[in-house]
Each structure stands twice: as structure tokens, then as C-alpha cells.
User: Fold this.
Amino acid sequence: MATSRDILLDWLRNAHAMEVQAEEMFKSQARRIEHYPPLRERIERHLIETREQQAMLAQCLKQLGAEPSALKEIGARFMAMGQSLFQVASTDEVVKGAVLACSFKHMEIAVYRALAAAAKTAGENDVVRICETILPQEQAMADWLDQHLPELVEQYLVRAELPSVSAKR
Amino acid sequence: MATSRDILLDWLRNAHAMEVQAEEMFKSQARRIEHYPPLRERIERHLIETREQQAMLAQCLKQLGAEPSALKEIGARFMAMGQSLFQVASTDEVVKGAVLACSFKHMEIAVYRALAAAAKTAGENDVVRICETILPQEQAMADWLDQHLPELVEQYLVRAELPSVSAKR
Assistant:
């Protein structure tokens, strides 16, 4: 048995940890991308939003008398490390990274939609508003990735077939 | 240096392993869900599609003189097991499961879009056609999950607040 407020706080902490994970993952991607500058630039722009989202969620937790969970953040960093290692080990690192980023963005979208529904039930309108601020940013990043994926694949395949050119990242 | 065909075969094997992972994950979800029958029924319907998709991809690999990779499949089963354990350990298992399913569906959508782009470049029209068959099925499942998520959250919160009722799954 748990109140909507308990659940809301737990989900807010999860959302904060998820944004820590997003930052680690995208930082590592942006640092490694060499031959696909539009992707790197879009990720770098989104990193700024990601840090703002972390701050909004931390502020929101504070207003509700709670704070981010260090334990969840350690888990998030660990997950991000695993994802990076998995990706770096692939010859098609840039494509795997874009696919992972698509999947991650849609996880975030689902998380904020669930959080918004819980905040409505708990009558926490500040949390609803934060979700409504973050959701279009996540959706825009997801849309950009969706739109640019076929082009990225084509560029990757062209580079992969050239003898003395690196396509990996 | 790799040909588009090498890459295409590798991605087809990855897609096959991904569908093995999808089957394991959704089988475990469907088996565990107790109090959310519409979600269980939708997953069960999608499990039938998932098995058909596996068969299409295996057939496609065969036509190209290749076959699914047992190693990748073991990895996929292992990943699915990890996801299930992570989820089962949560009091909000049903919501985490739905969020994970959203994220997984969008990973699959990105994978099939990348695969279709590679198949076009390699001139493998049978693979393009298979992607075009599978993509609307994945999109329909993703849309269903997106649409039903707020309702699922509300049902979960109502059950979670009741004293002698289980909300978890």
C-alpha cells in the first residue's frame, strides 16, 4: 500500500537518475563521434537541455521536501557505462548509438507521460508543468533521430565500403 | 572495410536476436500480469506477430545463404532475463514493464528503419519488403502502449492506494 504522493516521489527520483544516465551516455557519444558532425552537434545541444531537466527535477523534489537518490544515480551511471562499452565494441558504433538513443528517448517520453499522469492524480500541478516542459524537448530529439537515421545509415555504408576510411564513429 | 551485404547480414542476425529477446521479454510479462487484462491480451497478440517476424527474418537469412547466430540469441535471452529480473523486483512492475516495452518497441522501429536503408543500398528488395511488413506491426504495438499508458498509471495508482489489493502486476 502506497499513496500517490509516495509513488510520485519515487518516480521523480527515477526520472532524475534517468537524466543522469542520459547525460553520461550522450556525453560519451558526443566525445567519440568523429565523422558525423550533425549528429554530434544535435547531441551537444540536447546535453544542455538534459542538464536543465536534471536541475528542474532536483528543484521539484526539493519543493516536495525530498531529494534525488544517490543510489539511483550510481545505478544510472553504471548503466550508462555498460551501454557505452557495448557500443564502443561495435564496428557500427555510430548506428548502434543512434538506435540506442532513439530507444532511450522513447523510454524518457514514456516515463514523463507516466509521471504526468501520477502528478495529475496527486494534484501536484508543478510536476505536471515540468513534464509538459520536458516532453516536447524529448520528442524533438526523438523526431530528429528518427528523421536522420536513414541518412546516417547511408553515410555509414558509404564510408564502410571505402578502403582507407574509418566509418565506425 | 566491409561491404553493404556483410553489414546487411550482420544487421539481419541482430534483428533476429532482437525478436528472440522480444519474445522472452513479452512472454515473461504476459505470464506475470494479473490485474491488467487488456495489457496482457495486447501483449499476447503481439507475441504471435513476434514469432512470425522471427520466422520471416530466419527465412530471409536462409535466402541470402546465411543463418541466425546462436551466440547472438544467447545474448538476447540473457538480456531479456536481466530485464525481467529488474522489473519483477519493483513494486510498480506493471508500469515499469509498459515503459520498458515502449522503449523496446521504438528500438525495434529504429532497427528496422536502419535495416531497410541498408537493404535499399545493397539492392536486397526482399529484405526491404520484410521491413515494410514488420514496421507497421511494431508501430501499432508502440502506439497502443503510448495510448494506454496514462490509463494504466491511473489504474495502478488506484489499486496501490487500496489496503488489501495488489497493484504490482
Observations:
- Residues 161 and 167 of chain A are 9 Å apart (CA to CA).
- Chain A touches chain B at residues 1-4, 7, 10, 91-92, 95, 98-100, 102-107, 109-111, 113-114, 116-118, 121, 142, 145-146, 149-150, 153-154, 157, 160-163 (CB under 8 Å).
- DSSP finds five helices and no strands in chain A.
